[in-house]
Amino acid sequence: MTVSLYAGSIPVFKQMLAGLDDVLGKAQAHAAEKKIEPSALTQARLFPDMFPLSKQVQIACDFARGVSARLAGVEVPVYEDKEQSFDELRALIAKTLAFVAGFDASRFDGSVQREIVLRPGTPKEKRLSGDRYLLNYGLPQFFFHVTTAYALLRHNGVEIGKRDYMGAY
Question: Are 100 and 72 contacting, i.e. CB atoms less than 8 angstroms apart?
Fold first, then answer.
């Protein structure tokens, strides 16, 4: 059985981002119910040298957009990544979901062999085929940041579980 890069990316991004949005909604409700300053959660870190929750969400969205765009052969949209509140983070997820949902499977035709160049013109430049880019770099990066966002909220007492993390599938 052959799975297209579209099938291995867009539905996954949609499912996991929708789950992340639901998790943020539960965190927002948790903060209100427990009278916790929302920034205590949006700026939470697992360790001082790690990014806070807000940045984890921004990076997950960046990867969903960037991977989708590169595989589809279109310009990667650049966002400012200034979101700090739950409402702003959830709006970013909605904007990202709208972007990835806008791709038709045919845009990914030939993307397996498409060369993806990371950090072009720098000493860290890396060239990957589309399939290696998705499977060995893009998806692992995306899942790392979605998982870290989930872990930050769970660690801080938000009552969420695996079903919340997974979203609807």
Answer: no
Query: Quick one: average pLDDT of 150-165?
Result: 97
* pTM attached to this predicted model: 0.96
Segments making up each domain of the chain, as ranges: 10-166
Provide φ and ψ at 56, rounded to 5°: -60, -45
Closest CA to 110 of 25, 3, 5: 5
Q: Which CATH superfamily is domain 10-166 in?
A: dinb family like domain (1.20.120.450)
Those residues with Cβ within 8 angstroms of residue 44's Cβ, 6 or more apart along the chain or in another chain: 52, 53, 152, 153, 155, 156
> Helices in 51-120 by DSSP H: which ranges?
53-72, 86-101
CA dihedral 154, 156, 157, 162 (to 10 degrees): 0
